Amino acid sequence: MDQRLKGRRIAALAADGFEKVELVIPMKALQAAGAKVDVISLRHGNIRGVNLHEPASRVHVNKTIAEANPDDYDGLLLPGGFINPDLLRQSAEAREFVRAFDRAGKPIASLCHGPWVLASAGLLQGRTLTSWPGVRDDLVNAGATWLDQEFVRDGNLATSRGPQDLIPFVKGCLDLFAQDAPLSKKEQQPISRSAPQANEPPEIVVGAMKWLPKPSLRTAVGLGAIAAVFLAAWSRR
């Protein structure tokens, strides 16, 4: 069995709304290669995953960001999902946590919407990467060159577009996290321009929304309760 990551510690930074396969599959592969992986999040307890837009099972949080020390880890995994990186990018603690890995030249691997966090942390100027096509413009506006490729390695940064690229992403993660820091922050040959914008959204996502089932009674009651609390708080203003 491949144990090239034996003794390595990897931080998986995630929040509620993470794309389940983008956290669980790389995490299991890293563990199988000998790494210890800690799930780091905004809060204690269990965070909820999603499959596209559908709620999925939860994952246990090992430490909050405030409790975790980047110096204790050899690399950082940033999964995607629509909600997860949007929450993390608004957290000053999360942004600084990510910056600490980059300052030390430690490996950072991300896919799908995960690079949103890198953009908000101010780490993409002059970098080359990929992501879910829908966040291409955000990354380009943050100073990055965006490529429409299944896997892009640029120094200490490795990225993929989404769940469809998990096989090359996992392979690339194993290679990346096996290297010792500090890694160069620029290995990709200069590219003059980014790949063009998409002409239409991915059909699989549009189709998934079309065929989603109606909310369950439990979900409807929960949303109603949230709305009632919000309206009550608003009426007191």
From TrEMBL:
<dbReference type="InterPro" id="IPR006286">
    <property type="entry name" value="C56_PfpI-like"/>
</dbReference>
<dbReference type="GO" id="GO:0006508">
    <property type="term" value="P:proteolysis"/>
</dbReference>
<comment type="similarity">
    <text>Belongs to the peptidase C56 family.</text>
</comment>
<dbReference type="GO" id="GO:0008233">
    <property type="term" value="F:peptidase activity"/>
</dbReference>
<protein>
    <submittedName>
        <fullName>Intracellular protease, PfpI family</fullName>
    </submittedName>
</protein>
<dbReference type="InterPro" id="IPR002818">
    <property type="entry name" value="DJ-1/PfpI"/>
</dbReference>
<dbReference type="InterPro" id="IPR029062">
    <property type="entry name" value="Class_I_gatase-like"/>
</dbReference>
<feature type="domain" description="DJ-1/PfpI">
    <location>
        <begin position="8"/>
        <end position="172"/>
    </location>
</feature>
<keyword id="KW-0378">Hydrolase</keyword>
<dbReference type="Pfam" id="PF01965">
    <property type="entry name" value="DJ-1_PfpI"/>
</dbReference>
<keyword id="KW-0645">Protease</keyword>
